[in-house]
Structure formats: structure tokens, C-alpha cells
Design brief:
By secondary structure, the chain is an alpha/beta fold. It is 31% helix and 18% strand. The chain binds alpha-D-glucopyranose.
Length: 730
């Protein structure tokens, strides 16, 4: 059957079902509730967390279309996979007893693997996946995540985040693929394709969700859920394209920005939600609100005069499903609005059709039990190997003076610092619990950095540090121990967090960490500085003094092992920074900055630039050439370049192609990433790489806010080489 025929069948099924539905059943489909609404007391620890009476009330009396999260907000925590399968099956069976047997779609935040299923494979977080510059790995993590979500009996993943990470203070920077539009679009699209395949009704595939549409990641003050001021040209140049890429990659749902842009809350923004998302991007799926954000139009944003008006504003702006999530207020209010005609039935039918369409596309109507067996689909050796590889390629070697790395396995090592002996600092939020901070719930068989070092080396390893992130470290003890060892591994950074809990006032490193570092440097021993955490905390002073700097960010459950693989040279690092690493806390200039940001006293001078990353070998590109030096408007141009391993050991290298538009009707970034490929080369091996730059790559948002290509001069930059071409208009 062709895709066209399959679509026609689904459209027919949607129409037929919609025609049978009562108003109550329709409004119920637009209602999503948190697990706690159907949970017994302390459901997170109960053998069967579902309260049958509450579930019946939700499904029979309120016809809810979706349930999300784990037992039980706010004390949520990961559940055993068999318990997930039982809970979701209970919901599935009850929904099958309703008049029209419309299945509930169960949504979960499986943002770096099945985060809330105990012992699942937990990958590097998005910021670290971005550092791999490896779309194939992103595809594979999507595949494995879908498999483990479906083996858990779950249906729908609130991932990937397609927000662009250009505000390093923002406590969800690490949930993004970094500051670059092309990199985010490429990795996010690969994840979606892996997660969904060609047909996400397949047992081992599942629908994804683009979030948080749009402009959520750029709060002026750096705090989560605070105002962003993004002009339309910036919106179209930097913040919309990755969502357009996600729509093109086939994501069937979009979650909405919890905050506001230019004074309009995401959930009230008709232009974003309908004119652009539907009219321009052609999105056919459904939108879901973020947490409690419809009622917050009234309670927080003071935009709606009542909860009832909040529902009307949001639904008429283009919100199809409300993540209410703690009660049936949305259901009751929308029912009333529909009965008075203030929300026309056509709008309700439009939203419900979109929701039903995704449920049919997801195969939910045909599902009578968990789609996938646990055996062979959950924590397979292949999945763990992919995770280890992803962690290895995510880690960024930022400095390696006098080749202090790799370390000898006979060296005596002092390991100290608050991130040396914890798993939570390598995983971040959305790990086992919402904040990811319950170290005691982490799997004991996974290795912290310290344990991985101890396992890997035959040299003496001493640890001076606490049990918990905030435990004070005895600096005198650390310094005395350092004197007795050949080298110090100093592990600093952040504890896990997400959302507003992670708000900070400065990127400066915790003073206690600086104090420890300064004392260690006093004694003159070689120091390897390692950082873990979701944001680029300011390490300039200590990075200058350290012989080596390794940026781990959030490499996931295999992060400790992978870091040790790299420290001792069993793996050659290949990670590159997906963000510009600031030199000072207000030194926030992205690599694709405007000429004005590098004029006179201003300059782009991060501690480490975007795409910075060292290897234990060396690479050089040469022979950059273009298929022509002039093209007509609307034509593409081919780029060829050679890359060679000029060092003494095999390594992986991502080759990046940048483009600069010399002069245009609006100012243009000094350069923008437009293509990349990652290759593995043996010493002396050389490979020729081909790329094509399209009119889309050459385009800009013009004076009239339309995406256009303007005739003029362009410069292609790869490595140290440049090549120019002209676009002419006849
Ligand atoms: C949260 C987050 C969003 C998540 C949702 C459901 O508030 O903003 O990323 O998917 O609620 O947990």
C-alpha cells in the first residue's frame, strides 16, 4: 500500500469516528492529565499506582485523550518496566471499554533514553549528542529510545527539543543541540527519523514531539520561563528553522513554549501557532500545551480575565490539546465554551481530528497490549554499545598542553572535585526523577569518573571528595594528597537540574570549586581539569593553569567509562563544541555573530570557539574547490574538500562547511555552518568529501521578512581554506 493510500484510509477513519463522537468525547480528547490524577496516594512507591475509580472517572466521565508523566508528581521516579507495562495496559483496557474505544495516548519525557523506566539505556543529553557532530549516532539513539519507550508500554515521546541554545544561562541549554541552526536541525531530524522510521505505528517506533515551539530558549535574563524579545527576522533566521526541519522530518506533534515572546505568551500566539506553524510550515499534527500553561494565561500572565477566557484564547490561538494537568477544569470550561458557541465546533473538530489522526498513525487503535516485548528490545548489548560510543564522541578535549593526555596507566592519580564520583552530574535532569538529582536511585553498575579511572589504571588512585555534590571537600587533605601523586584529575561543574529549579544569577563557577582549584594549582603538579554539567560555567582562570581541559557536559550513563577511555588513550576524542564557551559570564557572543559584534573593541573571543575540539591525532583539510565560481539565482553549488589524518593514530573528524554572504540587504553573520560530515581516518589516510550548498543555504530573511536569495558574493570556508563564488541574477 502506498503512503498516499495509507493516509487516505486514516483520513476516512478520522472522519468516520469524528462523526460518531459526542461533544463530551471530543473535548475529552483535547484533555491531557498527569498520572497523579489517576494515582493512589504515593503512587510512585505503590505496587499498583492506579486508583481504579479515579481512572474510570477520567476515562468514562471525562473521556481524557492523553495521560502523561510518572507516578507521582512531584515525587515522581522511574518505574520498573514490568510495572510500566502493567499500568499502561490497565489504561489501554479501560479505554477499550468506552463507547467508541478511542485509545489514550500516553506521553513521556524520554529525552535521553527512556528516562523514567528503571535501568533503561540513558544516552548523552542533547548538548552532548550535538558535540558528537554525528547524525548517524543521533539516528541510532532515536531508534533505541523508541524501542525502550514502546517496550515500556508507552506511546509518545516529548522529544526532541528543537529550541536553539544561544543563552548559556538558561537552565535548559543542555536540552538543546546548541547554538547553531544547521547542527540542531540535522541532529534533531536524525533523531526523529530514527525514532519514527517510515511508519511510527510499527511496534518499535513511536511518535516524537517538537518542543518548545518557539523562542523559549532565549530569555533575555537567562531565567527559565521568562520573557524573550525576539524580532521577526531573528525568529525566522534562528528560531523557526529547526522546527521547520522537525516538521519536515515528520514529527506529528508540537509542544508549545511555556513563556512569552515579544509580550505574547506562546499559548496565546495565533501568528506562531496557526499562521506560521500551519500556514507556512504545513504542520498537520497536533499541538499540545506545556505544563499548566493554559490556566497560567490567567494565573500568571494576567492576559486572561478568567480561567474560562484562558481556555478560549488558547484553543482559538491553535492549542489542540491541554496539558492541564491536575484536574478536569479545561474539559469543563471548553465544554461550556462549545455549548455557547464561543469556541466554534469547527475548531473543536479540527483539533480532535488532528489528535485522532496521530493516534491512528501511531497504530493505537489496533493495539491491545504493549507493542513490544521487553526481551530483545530493552537494554540490549547493541544499545549499550551505541551509548558508550555516543559518550565517547560527545566528550570534548579542549586543551592538552605538552600532550599530558593520554595518561599513563602506571601514573599515580589524585582524583578530587564535586563531580568526580557521581552519576547524576553526568546525566542531568529528566533522569530517573524530574531533576535527576536522586543519586541513590541511579544504577549501581554504572561507573562514575572515579570508579572508571580506578577500574582502568594499575597506578595508584586516591580520591579526596565527598559523597554528595554539596559535600565540602577538605582542601588541605586534597592538596597534601596531590603532593604525593603524579597528576591531579580535578572534576568540577554543576549538579543536575532542569527548568526553573536550575535558574542561576551568574555563569561563574561555585566559589568553593574555584578555591579548591586554586589551592591545587599552588603546588605545581600537572592538573587535568574535567567539567560535567549542562551549562558552560566560567573556568577561564583555572583552564589557563590546567595542562589539560576536558569538557564532559552531560555524557549520560556511560560518561564515566567514556571519559576514562579518553583520559588513558583507549579512545581518541572527537567531540566538538556545539556552543561558544564564554570567557566571561557576560561574554555571550555566538560564532555566527554579526560584523558589528567584532568591530573595533568588540570581538568574538570565547574561551573555546564553536566547533572547537582536539584529538590525539591531527587532521588537515586541503584542496577546497567549488564546481563553479558563478551560479544563477536558484542554483546550487558543489563543494569538494580533502581531509587527511596527519597524525600518528586513527581518529574521527567532523569536517564543517561554513558560508558567508558578503553583502546583503540585511546584515549577515560572519559565517554560518551549512554542512558537515564526520569521517574516521587512519594515520596518513586522506578522503575527499563532497557537499552541495543549495539556495536554502544561501538564503536570508530579507527586508520584507521573506526568505530570499540575493545576488552577490559568497565565501565558502572549510578549515583554513576559503573559496568564493557569485550568485548572479539575469
Ligand atoms: C515540562 C517541560 C516540558 C515537558 C513537560 C511534560 O514543564 O517544560 O519539556 O515535556 O513539562 O513533562
Amino acid at each position: 500500500m502506498s503512503a498516499q493510500e495509507a493516509n487516505e484510509i486514516i483520513e476516512d477513519q478520522v472522519r468516520t469516528l469524528l462523526a460518531q463522537m459526542t461533544l463530551e468525547e471530543k473535548v475529552g480528547q483535547m484533555t491531557q492529565i498527569d498520572f497523579s490524577v489517576i494515582s493512589v496516594e504515593n503512587g510512585q512507591d505503590a505496587e499498583n499506582p492506579i486508583d481504579p475509580a479515579k481512572l474510570e472517572n477520567a476515562i468514562f466521565n471525562h473521556h481524557v485523550g492523553s495521560i502523561l508523566n510518572t507516578p507521582t508528581t512531584p515525587n515522581n521516579k522511574a518505574q520498573p518496566i514490568q510495572k510500566w507495562r502493567h499500568m499502561t495496559q490497565t489504561i489501554r483496557e479501560l479505554a477499550a471499554k468506552t463507547r467508541l474505544k478511542i485509545p489514550v495516548i500516553y506521553g513521556i519525557d524520554a529525552i535521553h533514553g527512556a528516562t523514567y523506566t528503571q535501568n533503561s539505556v540513558l544516552f548523552p543529553q542533547a548538548i552532548s549528542m550535538a558535540a558528537t557532530f554525528n547524525t548517524e549516532l543521533s539516528f541510532k539513539t532515536g531508534e533505541i529510545t523508541a524501542r525502550e519507550v514502546k517496550a515500556s508500554g508507552l506511546d509518545w515521546n516529548f522529544s526532541p527539543v528543537m529550541d536553539i541554545g544561544r543563552q548559556p544561562l538558561w537552565p535548559r541549554l543542555w536540552e538543546t543541540y546548541g547554538e547553531d541552526v544547521h547542527l540542531s536541525s540535522a541532529l534533531g531530524s536524525a533523531f526523529i527519523q530514527g525514532h519514527q522510521g517510515d511508519d511510527f505505528a510499527q511496534a518499535d517506533k513511536a511518535p516524537t514531539c517538537l518542543k518548545h515551539y518557539v523562542g523559549y530558549s532565549y530569555p533575555l535574563n537567562g531565567k527559565d520561563r521568562s520573557p524573550a524579545w525576539i524580532g521577526e527576522r531573528a525568529l525566522r533566521e534562528y528560531f523557526l528553522p529547526s522546527f521547520a526541519a522537525g516538521v519536515k522530518a515528520g514529527a506529528p506533534t508540537v509542544m508549545i513554549n511555556s513563556a512569552e515572546v515579544d509580550g505574547i505568551p506562546g499559548h496565546a500566539n495565533y501568528q506562531y501557532l496557526t499562521t506560521i506553524l500551519r500556514g507556512e510550515m504545513g504542520f498537520k499534527g497536533f499541538t499540545v500545551s506545556d505544563w499548566e500553561d493554559i490556566i497560567r494565561l490567567y494565573t500568571r500572565d494576567k492576559m486572561a480575565a478568567s480561567p474560562r477566557q484562558a481556555v478560549k484564547i488558547a484553543v482559538m490561538a491553535g492549542v489542540d490539546m491541554s496539558m492541564v494537568p491536575f484536574d478536569f477544569s479545561f474539559y469543563d470550561l471548553l465544554l461550556d465554551l462549545a455549548k455557547t458557541g464561543e469556541v466554534p465546533m469547527s475548531r473543536i473538530d479540527e483539533a480532535v481530528s488532528r489528535i485522532l489522526r496521530v493516534k491512528y498513525q501511531s497504530g493505537l487503535f489496533d493495539r491491545t497490549e504493549p507493542a513490544l516485548a521487553v526481551e530483545g528490545n530493552f537494554v540490549t548489548d547493541e544499545a549499550v554499545a551505541v551509548n558508550r560510543q555516543a559518550a565517547r564522541e560527545a566528550i570534548v578535549l579542549a586543551k592538552n598542553d605538552r600532550q599530558i593526555l593520554p595518561l599513563s596507566k602506571q601514573a599515580s592519580i589524585l582524583v578530587t572535585g564535586p563531580t568526580a564520583n557521581l552519576l547524576s552530574v553526568m546525566n542531568g535532569g529528566w533522569t530517573i526523577t524530574w531533576q535527576g538529582s536522586k543519586e541513590e536511585l541511579y544504577p549501581q553498575d554504572k561507573l562514575t569518573l572515579l570508579k572508571a579511572i580506578q577500574q582502568k589504571t594499575s597506578g595508584k588512585v586516591t580520591y579526596v571528595g565527598g559523597k554528595n555534590f554539596s559535600d565540602e571537600i577538605n582542601i588541605e587533605q586534597a592538596v597534601n594528597a596531590a603532593r604525593q601523586h603524579d597528576v591531579v584529575v580535578l572534576a568540577l561543574g554543576e549538579k543536575p537540574y532542569t527548568e526553573t529549579e536550575g535558574n542561576i544569577e551568574s555563569l561563574n563557577l561555585d566559589p568553593l570549586q574555584l578555591q579548591l582549584a586554586r589551592a591545587i594549582f599552588e603546588i605545581g603538579k600537572p592538573v587535568v581539569l574535567i567539567t560535567f554539567g549542562g551549562r558552560p560555567r566560567i573556568i577561564t582562570e583555572i583552564a589557563d593553569k590546567a595542562q589539560a581541559v576536558v569538557l564532559g557536559f552531560l555524557p549520560g550513563m556511560e560518561g564515566g567509562s567514556a571519559m576514562a577511555d579518553i583520559l588513558f588513550g583507549d579512545v581518541n576524542p572527537s567531540g566538538k563544541l556545539p556552543i561558544s564557551y564564554p570567557r566571561q559570564t557576560n561574554d555571550v557572543v555566538p560564532y555566527d555573530h554579526k560584523p558589528l559584534e567584532a568591530y573595533e573593541g568588540n570581538q568574538y573571543r570565547p574561551l573555546y570557539p564553536f566547533a572547537h575540539g582536539l584529538s590525539y591525532t591531527s587532521f588537515a583539510t586541503n584542496g577546497l574547490r567549488l564546481s563553479t565560481d558563478q551560479i544563477e539565482l536558484g542554483e546550487s553549488i558543489d563543494v569538494t574538500v580533502n581531509v587527511k589524518n596527519t597524525g600518528a593514530r586513527t581518529g574521527k573528524e567532523a569536517v564543517l562547511v561554513y558560508l558567508h554572504d558578503a553583502a546583503a540587504s540585511v546584515t549577515r553573520p560572519v559565517k554560518q555552518l551549512k554542512a558537515f560530515k564526520k569521517v574516521e581516518l587512519a594515520p596518513g589516510q586522506e578522503q575527499s568529501l563532497q557537499f552541495t550548498l543549495t539556495p536554502q543555504d544561501m538564503s536570508l530573511i530579507g527586508i520584507d521578512m521573506q526568505r530570499v536569495v540575493e545576488a552577490g558574493e559568497f565565501k565558502v570556508m572549510v578549515g583554513h581554506e576559503t573559496a568564493e563564488f557569485k550568485v548572479v541574477k539575469h
